[in-house]
Design goal:
By secondary structure, the chain is of the alpha/beta class. Strand 2 (57-62), helix 3 and strand 3 form a beta-alpha-beta unit. It is built from 12 helices and 8 strands. The chain is globular. The protein is 44% helix and 13% strand. Strands 1-8-7-6-5-4-3-2 form an 8-stranded parallel β-sheet. The protein has a single domain (21-324), classed as Aldolase class I (TIM Barrel), CATH 3.20.20.70. It has helices at residues 26-32, 40-52, 75-81, 97-106, 119-126, 130-146, 169-182, 198-210, 229-237, 266-275, 284-298, 305-324; strands at 21-24, 57-62, 89-93, 111-116, 151-156, 186-191, 218-222, 243-246. Helix 2 (40-52) runs antiparallel to helix 11 (284-298), helix 8 (198-210) crosses helix 9 and helix 11 (284-298) crosses helix 12 (305-324). The longest helix has 20 residues, at 305-324. The structure holds magnesium ion. Magnesium ion binds at residues 29, 221, 223, 252, 263.
Length: 325
């Protein structure tokens, strides 16, 4: 007898959002932190496969100077190759006004900006101070919004920092509130090194809401470095947060945290959300197949639990089918 493909056992929990936006960051945040350079055609196919799996909220690349992040030097070529389905988003990160202009010239219709909740990360990653990063982000938000381009804002190192350790929640909530006041549609609090735990998640989310960012404008960007990301998602769901970032296959090691595993894997997040009876519009089987396809092409195994388990189940099914054929 061939076993059925595994799927999550479903039981809804009262009080959680009925639908969640999974904001896919694999092609941008994932690939920028991987050591290999993925060809533009493979990136374009990755985006197409993600759209075909139901993804509507996708960050595709970053218009940073090509010398900063060689992995994403092909941003304009990739955007030109993309076939974005109606109603779907193709967001590009921009570091400053020059990046915004390059993105607009390339045909981008939505951008994201990054600020930092720690001085060390601002210096190491953004080459400025916390205040400088915020000024730069606000300048981009105002210009983009004036041009009819929506902006998503990230607050990096919101849960902790590899150099400074603890980060003051008041700094995080103030940055989030300023991005929101400037006109950013969504603010994603980033646990860039994965040190967050559920109690801290509850505190950061609650205090950000108290600082005036509406829950509909709040997202979390979590890393699974210490296996805490789904616990943190669940804590935030209970507070009404309904948007979470994830990267297909768990792509994206943070180069600033030694040994850090990647972003929360899309498949792992979707498995839990569907298990809670929460709609995502995503096809788990198609997502897992996308991870298998990309892992095969890159020759790198994916750190996602769900992708690994589904790949094993798929292999044993194929083997049994071949035996019985
Ligand atoms: Mg990340």
């Amino acid at each position: 007898m061939t076993p059925r493909m595994p799927s999550p056992r479903t039981q809804s929990e009262p009080g959680l959002p009925s639908r969640v936006t999974v904001f896919e960051v694999g092609p941008r945040d994932g690939l920028q932190a991987e050591s290999d350079i993925v060809p533009t055609a493979v990136k374009a196919e990755l985006c197409e496969r993600l759209y075909a799996a139901g993804t509507r909220d996708l960050e595709v690349t970053s218009f940073v100077p090509p010398t900063w992040i060689p992995q994403l030097a092909d941003a304009a070529e990739l955007v030109a190759e993309l076939d974005v389905p109606p109603g779907a988003r193709a967001v590009a990160l921009v570091p400053n006004m020059q990046g915004l202009q390059r993105a607009i010239d390339a045909g981008v219709r939505e951008v994201s900006v990054v600020v930092s909740a720690s001085e060390s990360f601002a210096k190491a990653n953004l080459n400025t101070t916390m205040a400088g990063a915020l000024d730069r982000a606000v300048e981009v938000i105002l210009a983009a919004t004036a041009a009819g381009i929506p902006v998503r804002g990230y607050v990096s190192m919101a849960f902790g920092d590899p150099w400074e350790g603890a980060v003051d929640p008041a700094v995080v909530t103030s940055a989030a509130a300023q991005l929101h006041a400037a006109g950013a549609r969504t603010i994603a609090l980033g646990d860039t090194i994965g040190v967050g735990t559920p109690g801290l998640t509850v505190r950061l989310v609650s205090e950000t809401l108290s600082a005036g960012v509406p829950v509909t404008a709040l997202a979390l960007h979590l890393h699974d470095t210490y296996g805490q990301s789904l616990a943190n998602v669940h804590a935030a769901l209970r507070l009404g947060v309904a948007e979470f970032d994830a990267a297909i296959g768990g792509l994206g090691r943070c180069p600033y945290a030694a040994g850090a595993t990647g972003n929360l894997a899309t498949e792992d997040l979707v498995w839990m959300l569907h298990g809670l009876g929460i709609e995502t519009g995503l096809d788990l089987t198609a997502l897992a197949a996308t991870t298998r396809w990309l892992s095969r092409i890159r020759g790198v195994p994916a750190p996602s639990n769900v992708a690994r388990a589904l790949a094993a189940a798929d292999m044993s099914r194929r083997a049994q089918e071949a035996e019985s054929a």
